[in-house]
Amino acid sequence: MNEQHKKRISKFLSLVLRHKPEVINLTLDENGWAAVDELMEKCAKNERSFTREELMEMVETNDKKRFVFNEDKTRIRANQGHSIAIDLALQPQQPPEFLYHGTAEANISSILENGIEKRSRQHVHLSQDRDTATKVGMRHGKPVILTIETEKMHEAGIPFYLSENNVWLTDFVDSKYIRNDH
User: What is this enzyme's EC (predicted)?
Assistant: First the structure.
């Protein structure tokens, strides 16, 4: 599959599996799973057709591991990043001492004053390393990497979750736990 086609389909899958399944009248269960056959059929009706092999390649080679199949590959869902109510059935985890948040330079003053909010998403996303956080921050402008004191947050009773693609999730990061090392 050529890269342009793969990127187009991946973006469309992000839209329907994370934000707007109604665009193609797709049914997601309470945990965000969609039947692969239904997804493929409804995408094809909306001029976004792909083969099962192409879908498997997209899931397996996506650099951010955005999607996952169930064990028998009959169902698919996004790993995180939903703006719709989905129960990912994640269990609380103890985070490492520090995690990182990449953002645009334009957002820094607001974040340092108000903290990091999930806004329209279900969770705040945090990265395990600076490189990943930098890539995230670059999507929004000149990147700034913030160090989050996650061990202190966890000790204060704030829950953390680890998605299947190793993105750390929490509901809110108070500014007192944020370090701007730049």
Answer: 2.7.1.-
CATH architecture of 3-78: Orthogonal Bundle (1.10)
Fold for 98-180, please state it. ADP-ribosylation fold (3.20.170)
Residue 77 has φ and ψ, to the nearest 5°, of -155, 165
Cα 63 to Cα 69: distance, rounded to the nearest angstrom: 16
Q: Which two tokens stand for residue 17?
A: 């599996």
Q: How far apart are CA 122 and CA 124, in angstroms?
A: 7
Could you report the per-residue pLDDT of 83-125, keeping only the tens digit for each?
A: 898 888 889 999 999 999 999 999 999 999 999 999 888 899 9
> Contact, 133 vs 92, CB < 8 A?
no
